[in-house]
Amino acid sequence: MAAKQINNPWNIYGHYTALIILALITLAPIWVMVATGFKDDVLVQQKEPVWFFFVPTLENYEYIMNRGKFDRYLWNSVIVGVVATFLTLFFGGLCAYALARTDFRGRVLVANSTLLVRMVPPAVLAVPAFAMVINFSLDNDLAVLIFFYTALNLPFAIWLLFGFYKQIPVELEEAAIVDGATPLQVFFRVLLPLMKSGYAVAGIFTFRIAWNEFILALLLTGRTSRTLPVGAAGFITDTGVEWGRIMAMGTLIVIPPLLFTFFAARQIIAGMTAGAVKG
After folding, report:
1. Nearest 10 degrees: CA dihedral of 148, 254, 120, 100?
2. Contact 156/118 with Cβ under 8 angstroms?
3. Contact by Cβ (8 Å): 92, 276
4. Can you give the pLDDT at residue 80?
5. 96, 141, 146, 266: which has the fewest C-beta neighbours closer than 10 Å?
6. What local confidence, expressed as pLDDT, does residue 256 receive?
7. Residue 7 has what pLDDT?
8. What pLDDT does 126 receive?
């Protein structure tokens, strides 16, 4: 009976119809953003929007590249995203390994409670973070933004990697030590190859948050240290919103995370699957 229900053509058609509808709902905002980036001001401002049949223009992209300081914003975002991700994975991996291999009372509670810190919205931390930066005269410094992004993402990385380390048998480390491996060799040669999926998942989420975060970047950066989201917000002026340019900037902003996720899709799927059965 179950096999007949699965092979029922109507069930198959309904399944794929639901998938197509969900895909259209997901892709519709992206298409609106991409299409608007290729429109001139006349098409953007007209009452009846045109989404498919229009003459595209590169005027918005030319303005962003030549006069929109895109290269500076891109460089700042790359530095902040890459360094914050590296520091988060490095310190988060060490903390998760210590929690997974050190036996003390309340170990699991400590590991799980780290996620509670991540539940605090960045907007709540924005005002005290801004006050600290101003008091210590650290504004307009990318190192400050990297520090806060690392602190913001560490709890999630520790919680995620803790579950992966718990799945690795201790006997593998003991066998490597018996063969003469040092603790660093055990960590880098035995554990890290087995943790690629976990680090890929943690790295994707960390990089995307550091790349897309807006509130802290707006408050903690200056003219020379703005990131791409803050640069895109600069097209919201007193005279109105430059929709074509802000959408073109948004299109360029989403490309690196999409490429990063696409090329690491296999590791992400393996990591999420392993995390679903851990314990």
Report:
1. -80
2. yes
3. no
4. 93
5. 266
6. 84
7. 61
8. 81
CA distance 147 to 123: 16
Burial class, 238, CB count within 10 angstroms (exposed 0-12 / middle 13-18 / buried 19+): exposed
177, with CB counted inside 10 A (0-12, 13-18, 19+), is middle
Contact of 197 with 271, CB cutoff 8 Å: yes
- Is residue 182 within 8 A of residue 113, CB to CB? The reply is no
Can you give the pLDDT at residue 259? 82
236 phi/psi in degrees, rounded to 5: -95, 105
Q: CA-CA distance, 83 to 22, in Å (whole number)?
A: 35
Rounded to an integer, what distance in angstroms lies between the CA atom of residue 46 and that of residue 145? 40
Give the pLDDT confidence score for residue 87 in this predicted structure: 94
Whole-model pTM? 0.81
Across the 279 residues of the chain, what is the mean pLDDT of every consecutive 10-residue run?
57 84 89 88 80 84 84 91 93 86 74 71 79 76 88 86 83 84 82 83 87 87 86 84 88 85 68 49
Give the span between the Cα atoms of 188 and 11, in whole angstroms: 48
Do 44 and 241 touch, CB atoms closer than 8 A?
A: no
Cα distances (angstroms) measured from residue 26 to each of 22, 23, 29, 38: 6, 5, 7, 20
pLDDT the model gives residue 270:
60
